[in-house]
Request: fold
Amino acid sequence: DAGITQSPRHKVTETGTPVTLRCHQTENHRYMYWYRQDPGHGLRLIHYSYGVKDTDKGEVSDGYSVSRSKTEDFLLTLESATSSQTSVYFCAISPGQGHEQYFGPGTRLTVT
Amino acid sequence: AQSVTQLGSHVSVSEGALVLLRCNYSSSVPPYLFWYVQYPNQGLQLLLKYTSAATLVKGINGFEAEFKKSETSFHLTKPSAHMRDAAEYFCAVSDQGAQKLVFGQGTRLTINP
Reply:
């Protein structure tokens, strides 16, 4: 298995609070991704990173920000959590073009 | 924009029967194509990938998929279903030169004893 961990694995938070999810890799891969998974929508890309301090938006980036200060860590922040952000969040990594992405175990976030 | 369509959100087959999960993509150039499997409460695991080599791709757990450019399809098959194949399956596509995957909505496979 690719060395990807996500923390926390489960979180319950209240509407309006900030939340940060962490993805950590031990593979030294260049690309890192954050997705959310919701029934009927498959996986949708939130943000991705193509290097330290290099990030770009995905298709559902509103309400989310990311940071990558080290190769191994990619943080996803919900600036002010809303109930619509209740979801399962997956991190993925990839060495680059034409290569598959490897997924972490996921974080289940509930916003009440 | 690139898109992926998986026909059938739920597929049910009997143990030992053929499994066929359908995936069609939209792309003007030959893409990279992937099938992933997700077991309950787990992340996605790569089953197989097509990257412009052989059009028939063999993956793990006895699955295979055939790239058909004329039909813009990449259907997943397995000759004989096993109970352990019950899971959700996702097709994904990436344009050459792009670093992002676009996923289909997923197909939940149920195996009946």
